[in-house]
Amino acid sequence: MKTVIEKFFKSLEIGEPASHEGLTAFPVFSSIPCDLPHITLNEAFRNDSIEIRELTQGGTVPELLVVNKGDENILILDGEELQGAKQNRVLNITVLIASNAKVVVPVSCTERGRWHYTSSVFADSGTMAARSVRFSKNRSVGENIRSDSSFRSDQMEVWDHIDELTMKSRTRSRTCAMRDVFQEMESKMDSFSSSLPLRDGQRGVIFFWGGDPAGFEYVAKAGSFRELYPRILKSYAVEIAAGKIPARGEAGVEQAREFLGRASMAGVSVKESAGRGEDVRFAGKGLIGSALVHNGEILHAVFFPDEKEVRRGINRRPVR
């Protein structure tokens, strides 16, 4: 695994950034080809090659059943949201579902005020959880892997972050659903999509809130990253649009390289994933992260600065 990770980080190149309202996006490219054919969650739903439902008729909050009805691998990212059934959920980890396979996946609830069926199966909500929710899950899942080898999250902490986002954005949801916040904030996020466009061949992105790192996202297949980039971008943009992150300052390429450098030196632990491949957890100086590795290839990776570091950055910036 060490060789795989070293090769991955050496392959990365950072392009010229674009900024909008305090959010800076550094495009990331890689020289490593993606050898594993796969499609995204969105593509699988469009092709009608996936079915996701409650594990039992009565339902269980932390698990869902994913059925791949097609002949292609399906890559579902940590934090992608599913809507319907008894309540909306997000994936706790990134999973690769083999063709014609059934897999039980770990999830967290993103709709606290509903526990009844609105549909027999789930649909793609088109939303990726807000960055703060994803950080919380990444941290708590990593801790639970170390303590009891489970992919459980801290559900109460997930709800707390959704409540904070709802309060900051001054939006309302009858069922305390995260997706309702995104829908109400959609018009405010449109400008981020037009100002921070995808680059040709781009396979990753490093986001900064003002002068502080917010996260690094990577997907091995450029076509898959193109499909996923709009929802990844909104995962970060929603926090600024809601007024949750008062981003100030400005980041340069050297700061982006420094963040990648820290990620490359993080400690590593490995566990078999719920689907195909291995779930890799990273913990380093002021950051955490995870990746899905299959046959020596990193299919998805995400790194976040520690939440304490983010808040220190916010507090040390002068108020204008």
What does this structure look like?
The structure is a single chain. The chain is an alpha+beta fold and about 325 residues long. The protein has a domain at about 1-35 and about 130-315. It has nine helices and 18 strands. The protein has helices spanning about 1-10, 40-45, 130-150, 155-170, 180-185, 185-195, 220-240, 255-265, 305-315, and strands at about 10-15, 20, 25-30, 40, 50-55, 65-70, 75, 80-85, 90, 95, 100-110, 120-130, 205-210, 210-220, 265-270, 280-285, 285-295, 295-305. Strands 1, 2, 3, 13, 14, 15, 16, 17 and 18 form a nine-stranded antiparallel beta sheet that branches. Strands 5-6-11-9-8-12 form a six-stranded antiparallel beta sheet. Strands 4-7-10 form a three-stranded mixed beta sheet. Helix 6 (about 185-195) crosses helix 7. The longest helix is centred in the C-terminal third of the chain and has 20 residues, at about 220-240. It is globular.
Task: Output the keywords.
single chain; 320 residues; alpha+beta; 9 helices; 18 strands; globular; disordered C terminus
